[in-house]
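Notes from the pairing session

We agreed to fold both candidates in a single pass and log them together. This is the raw record for the first candidate, unedited. Please don't reformat it; downstream parsing expects exactly this layout.

Candidate A
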Amino acid sequence: MQLWNSKALLLAAAVIDAASAHTTFTNFFIDQAPQGDGTCVRMSNDLQHSTAPVRPPTSSNMACGINGEKGVARICPAKAGSSMTMNFRQWPDGSQPGALDKSHMGPCAVYMKKVDNSAADNNAAGPGWFKIFEDNYDNSTAQFCTSKIMANDGKLSIKLPTDLAGGYYFVRPELLALHDADKNPPDPQFYVGCAQIFLDSTGSAVPKDTVSIPGHVSMQDPAMTFNVWSLPKQFSFPRFGPPTYQSGSSKRDIESRATESKQTFGLKPANCIMENDNWCGLTLPSYSDEKGCWASTTNCWDQSKQCYDSAGPVGSKNCKNWESYCKSLQDGCKSGNFNGPPSASSFMPAPPSRLAGTGNVAASSAETDGQSGDYAKGTAEPAPSTASPSGDNKSAQDGSVDTCGSNGGLKCATGYCCSHAGYCGTSQDYCGAGCQSGFGKCSGSSKHKRAHILGRAHAHFQDWKA
């Protein structure tokens, strides 16, 4: 029997949209421990546009992103007061580096919502959300929150509040890119997602000052139309959204609720031996004769199909590993080796690395003015060049974002586009409408790039036979 999973092509094609320099929340760490790519994270099932922003602010997708009303099978455990590091990627499968284009400047925030039942069964949108972290513009470094995240491989760390009642929660990072907020009409772009967690806590606090999402922001907020391209060196970014929850708030700000002490939903199965997103490859039935051998092999191939069918934008790398494992069982049955199953250890991927160090995590109890937050280790974004408009800017030639064209008269590095606003970059925001062709390249190669990616997909995702 020959099976073809048409979703394989879409999985590879999901990276195509990343050429537009958008981003998505793909994975997270609890106290530096990786939870796995896509594990416990609600992500878009629109694979070719999985990194697209949410707009307008009234969209129901504002809660957890496109398709965010649908839960995933896994819910990751965390302790009150733990650090939580969320990772954004421009290419969801991590096949190329990058978190977000440098033009996408703006603030970020993190929200939580407690749900009375399993987080996997809740549609997320609606009331009950409260903000635990925000970071807007840092005058000391002249950087928005998004710029700090970009400089640190897409990572943002916060500390979970220490006094919340235990139970099931959503944790929702929110990035707001304002590079097109000066358009008519304005186009603020939100990048959001939701992690499903179970908070192990002895606290009993539930914030009273909650908001509905969508509904927590509106186009009437000055932040939605803030022009990031015309900034003085020192300025105050307008606040928007609710105030930040502070651990240890007064009784008038919280209500008391019984703590759920034990997680019963969304746990990793005890017999899970390989993971991909929220799929688990389960231990295969043992066998000692030919009939049992082929039955176990069929079980393996059935699980392989489930893996590919459930794989999201972060890809199907471990589905391929599981497929190789199934092939080894099949080859054993064909050769007369009817004792098994063999160990899957040699087919296992290398375990994901822990984050280095403990991180200088922002206290979740403090409302910030853009001065806090942990962005891990990374290279700082280069400062704009002060070179005279000679048309040969060394900083731009080295590949860093810099002024060009009408904004200084400089040329961009080879392969870079000069945007309508006068900055060098490689996304459609630079290379599309308004691109200044006299100072860099402009769009024209997207069809070739799409063909290349789809061709690579055909080569990578082969038919498997049972």
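Candidate B (folded immediately after A)
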Amino acid sequence: MARGLLGPLKPLDAREADPERKLRKTLSWPHLIALGIGAIVGTGIYTLTGVGADRAGPAVILSFAIAGAVCACAALAYAEMATLIPTAGSAYTYTYSVIGESIAWIVGWSLILEYSLACSTVAVGWSAYLVGWLQSAGVHLPAALLSGPHGGGIVNLPAVLVALGIAGMLVAGTRESATFNIVLVAIKMVALAVFVAVALPAFSGSNFEPFMPYGFGSHVENGATRGVMAAAAIVFFAFYGFDAVATSAEEARNPGRDLTIGIIGSMAACTLIYMGVAVAAIGAVSYIDLGKSAEPLAYVLRTLQHPFAAWAIGLAALIALPSVILVMMYGQSRIFFVMSRDGLLPRALSRVSARTGSPALVTMVTGVFVAAVAGFFRLDEIAELANAGTLLAFIAVAACMMVLRKRAPELKRVFRCPAPMLVGTLAILGCIYLLVSLPTHTLVRFALWNVLGVVFYLGYGRARSLVRAAA
């Protein structure tokens, strides 16, 4: 067993022999593209468009472009690594095989933030659309059950219920969940196409003046973090999700073909969708008003006196946003699963159901954790902390891709990232810039989370590591 400076290295061609801990190959490329689009197109465009407009004004379109460019570089690195190491675990597994166990643990611990908090963010966004949709129909739910203590309530009950419902669906089986996700993605695409068709005729160039009211760099203004980069650091949440496709590598029938199509195809499609929707939304209403709404697309349509279209968009969001929760919760359960299979988390979590071929226990644990966070925390704070975990994972994957190009250039690569050193460097520098553009309190919480993770690793995981034991 190879050893690196930062702990033992998991073999690049490691395969799990225990049938009780081996995932079943049930997914093809249409499932993977749908998983990618299902994860990427969701809360970012349905709810965070308003948050981004509040931070950057009309220049939020530039924020989307910057975040998308960084993600495109990371996606190319992911595509190469996912086809080279087609096992579950994505960034955690790649780091374990290329850099070493200790850094892999930190990446895996950070991925818990990415996937779990992403699920929670979408659950909170879904709850906001549910409330708006019901209120437009004259139904008013008790305020105490619609927000956590930060909003004067007790718990965000709709967010809790949707998280637990999706967890139950995933326990039923991976292929069934992925097929259902294709239906949700189709609904989502139709809804966004309708929004653009209705909003574009109301486009007004005056809504883009001034284009960059808060400047480019991230800074604090009147107690709020403003600027194009401040918005990019949070709308970045709107672009990731393609890494959940990489997490499915072990369950892909033809990893070389399916993962490449799934990652690159979903990323390209979603970038075009986002730019079109953002231009239509900001062109139709003032960015100041847009930034005040928790359900910005429905708000735009109500403002334009299209109540039925607003109602339909709200309904589509209610139906389709759970697809993001489904994909992200799927990704999180697989990260937990692989860390458990390696011995860094309790081994009981990596048991696979004989009936469905999916890890039922770890999926239920993930669902409870996601529901708890969604029930008691604010959307913007959850999204920012999730972004911190994702950015660290993207940095690790780009670094792994470049290291392997130098260390093992002879390895057969099904997908080869073009200009790997340039693309990898741009991905790392872009992610670092977005990371430092996050609010200070978010970075402090992220650091504390990783301190907690290191303590857990030293006290539990390190001594029980199966890879370390075999080294």
